[in-house]
From TrEMBL:
Gene3D superfamilies: alpha/beta hydrolase. This is Alpha/beta hydrolase. SUPFAM superfamilies: alpha/beta-Hydrolases (SSF53474). Pfam families: DUF915. InterPro entries: AB_hydrolase_fold, DUF915_hydro-like.
Length: 267
């Protein structure tokens, strides 16, 4: 009899512990908290999207909940891990190897998403990418559709760009002409051809916002509007908006901030 009572007690204890764990996990995953990953562009740094994140905080639109650096070897180093607080919990992503290939960056963001799922028990993320960051965000959406809720691209050369024009606006880019990142960015690159060849696989539950800059010549100085709107054939769930801004100013514009927030904000 005592053995029966002991076994029953153990079963009840295990069941209670499982109930508590399941309830906590369910609350974490179904709380509506979907973090937004901010992914900078080619040759970018922590400053590239840092001011945009700061403005979102100042406007009480969101809170920077986590910050991570991806080292050149692909190791993800978490510098900040806080609660997913605010309407838009923001995750600041920085690549130390800022001229990395699209394939490398896609893998790295995948590791970040895996870490976030373990840390916060979330089921999906929103992705916001400027320039090449938007290419990476799109590639991740193709590779891991179940993990992506919404996608934002800002001045992203989804149909490629002219590297010569990039160097004119950013002379520093001359030092990285031979990089894998440079190879992937240009018109008709193998990486972009592969992405567009897979457009039929793009998950239709993912909503997209694509922003383009126009300084008066149909480009933002680097990326044409046509290229920035290169996801037009991927899905019907897409919103396009053109801003009178240059390439870098797309992440320094209050008008862009407002448009992106309206797209991302939770109902």
């Amino acid at each position: 009899m005592r053995i029966f009572i002991l076994l029953l007690s153990i079963i009840l204890l295990v069941a209670f512990c499982w109930y508590i764990f399941s309830s906590q996990t369910k609350r974490a995953s179904s709380s509506g908290e979907i973090p937004v990953l901010f992914i900078h562009g080619y040759l970018g740094s922590q400053n590239s999207l840092g001011t945009m994140i700061k403005r979102f905080e100042e406007n009480n639109w969101g809170q920077k909940s986590a910050y991570c650096i991806v080292r050149s070897d692909g190791t993800v180093q978490w510098k900040q891990k806080g609660k997913l607080a605010g309407q838009l919990p923001m995750v600041h992503v920085v690549f130390k190897k800022a001229d990395a290939s699209l394939e490398e960056q896609t893998k790295w963001v995948g590791r970040i998403i895996d870490d976030l799922k373990k840390m916060y028990h979330i089921s999906s993320v929103d992705l916001l990418g400027h320039s090449m960051g938007g290419l990476t965000a799109t590639a991740v959406s193709l590779e891991r559709p179940k993990d992506v809720h919404k996608l934002v691209t800002l001045g992203s050369p989804l149909k490629g760009l002219d590297y010569g024009e990039l160097m004119e606006m950013y002379p520093r880019a001359k030092n990285y002409q031979a990089s894998e990142g440079a190879r992937d960015l240009v018109f008709h690159s193998a990486a972009l051809r592969d992405m567009h060849a897979r457009k039929e696989d793009f998950a239709q539950h993912i909503d997209i916002f694509s922003g383009a800059g126009d300084i008066g010549d149909g480009t933002d100085g680097v990326v044409t509007i046509e290229s920035a709107y290169g996801l037009d054939s991927f899905t019907e769930h897409i919103h396009f908006q053109t801003f009178h801004e240059s390439h870098s100013n797309l992440h320094e514009s209050k008008e862009v901030d407002e448009a992106v927030y309206q797209f991302l904000k939770r109902d």
